[in-house]
């Protein structure tokens, strides 16, 4: 699997965002309401987020145990995405995975932000 920070990632090239499912690795500490984003909020998340190397994500950010996932098109290519409650995420297009962090997205995760 290829992993790289996509310096040329252009958020405006994202289209057709679909929210498919909520998943959690810890039902006691992480609930659907912790990451209850709409399609437009997911698109906004990736628009505000910055692409980072996996090591930066691992060393400097907490990986929340719950996330939402779905599909989107990036430059007309079908991709899968994931956004975690801790304002981290990823986009997978084929064998390429891009990791994202968003330090300015707290409002998206606030309760009743929809």
Strand content: 35-45%
Return Rg in Å: 13 Å
Classification by helices and strands: alpha+beta
Uncertain spans: 1-7
Number of helices: 3
Can you summarize the main beta sheet?
A: 7 strands, mixed
- SSE string: EEHEHEEEEH
**Helical content band:** 10-25%
Q: What overall form do the CA principal axes indicate? A: globular
What is the oligomeric state here? Answer: single chain
Averaging pLDDT over every residue, what do you get? 88
The beta-strand count equals 7
Q: Span between N and C termini?
A: 35 Å
Explain what this protein looks like in three dimensions.
- The structure is a single chain.
- By secondary structure, this protein is of the alpha+beta class.
- It has one domain.
- It has three helices and seven strands.
- The relative contact order is 0.26.
In brief:
The protein is of the alpha+beta class and 114 residues long. It has helices at 39-48, 54-60, 106-109; strands at 2-3, 14-24, 50-52, 66-74, 77-84, 88-93, 96-101.
Question: Topology of this structure?
Answer:
Elements lengths: L1 E2 L10 E11 L14 H10 L1 E3 L1 H7 L5 E9 L2 E8 L3 E6 L2 E6 L4 H4 L5
Parallel strand pairs: 1-7
Antiparallel strand pairs: 2-4, 3-7, 4-5, 5-6, 6-7
Task: Identify the notable features of this structure and list them briefly.
disordered N terminus; alpha+beta; seven-stranded mixed β-sheet; 114 residues; 39% strand; 18% helix; 3 helices
């Amino acid at each position: 699997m290829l992993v790289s920070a996509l310096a040329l990632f252009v958020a405006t090239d994202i289209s057709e965002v679909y929210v498919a499912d909520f998943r959690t690795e810890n039902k006691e500490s992480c609930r659907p309401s912790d990451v209850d984003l709409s399609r437009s909020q997911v698109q906004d998340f990736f628009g505000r987020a910055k692409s980072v190397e996996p090591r930066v994500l691992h060393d400097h950010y907490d990986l929340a145990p719950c996330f939402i996932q779905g599909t989107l098109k990036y430059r007309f290519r079908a991709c899968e995405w994931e956004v975690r409650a801790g304002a981290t995420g990823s986009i997978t297009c084929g064998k390429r995975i891009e990791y994202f962090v968003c330090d300015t997205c707290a409002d998206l995760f606030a309760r009743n932000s929809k």
